Structure formats: C-alpha cells, structure tokens
Amino acid sequence: MDLLSQLENQSIYILREAFNKFESLAMLWSIGKDSTVLLWLARKAFFGHVPFPLVHVDTAYKIPSMIEYRDQLVREWKLKLIVGQNESALQSRKTYPEGKATRVDCCGTLKKDALKVVLDQHHFTGVLVGIRRDEEPTRAKERYFSPRDKNMEWNVQDQPPELWDQFKTDFEPGTHLRIHPLLHWNELNVWEYIQRENIPVIPLYFANAQGKRYRSLGCAPCTFPIKSQARTVQEIVQELRLTNTSERAGRAQDQESEEAFEKLRRDGYM
Questions:
Q1: 20 to 30 A from 109, CA-CA: which of 23, 84, 101, 262?
Q2: Side-chain half-sphere exposure of 203, counting CA atoms within 13 A
C-alpha cells in the first residue's frame, strides 16, 4: 500500500470510529483545501453520503469566491450546511480592521464565539476538524480525539495518550470533543491526494496573471497571496517539494505572538 492510501485508510478509520462512538457530530468546513479533503474522505467513508451536517463559520470577511465555491459544492454534493455568524459583533464593529479589535481578538469573536453558538443551538457534542500537526506548533500538541470542557476550552496539559491506534472515546458527560482525522498528514500529502483523487478546490490556490496565489485561505484582511507560478495541482506539488517557506506565512494573525495564538486555541478556536 502506498503512502497516500495509508493516510487515507487511517483518516477513514478515525471518521468511522467517531461516527460510531458519538451521537451528535458535525464537521467544520472552512472551504480550504484541508477541510475539503476531509469532506472528500467523509464521502468515501460513508459511500458517497455525509451523515452529519457541515458547519461553516462565516466571518463576513471571506473572499467572495470562497462563498460561491461553498454554495456550489453544497448543491452538487447535496450537503447539509449550517452557517454560523456573530451578527452582534459585526454590527457593533468589534472586528479588525474597522473596529478596535486586534486580529487575534477578531478571530476569537467572529470564529470561536460564533462556533460556540452553533454548537449550543444544535447540541453537537463532537466536531470533526481538518487540522494537521505540521501547520503550526500549537496544533502539533493535539490528539485525534481531543476533549474540551463545556465551554470548548482546551487543557493542553491534560490530553489522553494515543498509542498504537488506541484512542480514548469514553468521556465524562458534558465533554466537547474535537476530532482530527487529518492530524498525521502534511501539506504535500494533501496536494498529492488532491491530485490523485481529482478533488475540486477553489481557484484561489492557483497562480493568477500577476504571479500570485493563496497557499492558505482565511479572512481577506488577514490573508495574503504568495509569489508563485504554480497554475495546476501538479505545479503546486512540485513547488512544495522545493520550498522552505511556511505554509501559513501569508496568514497575518499567525505573525502575532505564539502565546496569543495558543491562548486563542485554548479558549476554543479551531
């Protein structure tokens, strides 16, 4: 079995295990490459059907083509989509850059707080998330089955051991679970898998006429393209094999202190 098939099998195993153990599941879909690969794997795991709703936290600052791509895929794949938005924060302008919030504060308000409202409204006890260990140092501390408290707060010092594919799935009532089926993948794996499976991804990932493309997608005020001539998936794969630049170099909020970003994740951020 080749590497991509091994990665795929492990992720499908995690997806099925989560669906078997937890009654009320949802999957976060950021519209980016990782969560779209996770969505593809869910369709494979359940034979073309996604048996849980997708949750997209809309900050109102996404690049418009991201929303167009989201809605198109929902129609074509017949997905159930729940959109969450912190309307009160947007109306009171507790945001960046229009308001007085910092980038990190804005992430907490428009993403974390909006997500908590959706989870509380729909009583989701487990959420599937497409993060990977290699993205940034805080995410490297995650587990496949990562418990949070009822407020979504994450105690990074108190995570269950996961050895030899033995996962803890019995938790105290009121525990909120984050499940990370892509934890063992890296960025190159993701693009090689997209190429192998011919997964549709948003065109923002490909170089435009100005020689720029997005390597990581987020809100428009805090996400910037990189210089690149990669106009196809194959060219992205080749570029990644040679680059030494961080995947999230274009994400401005990641340039804040590492302590600030870890605090955001401890408080319940994705």
A1: 23
A2: 6
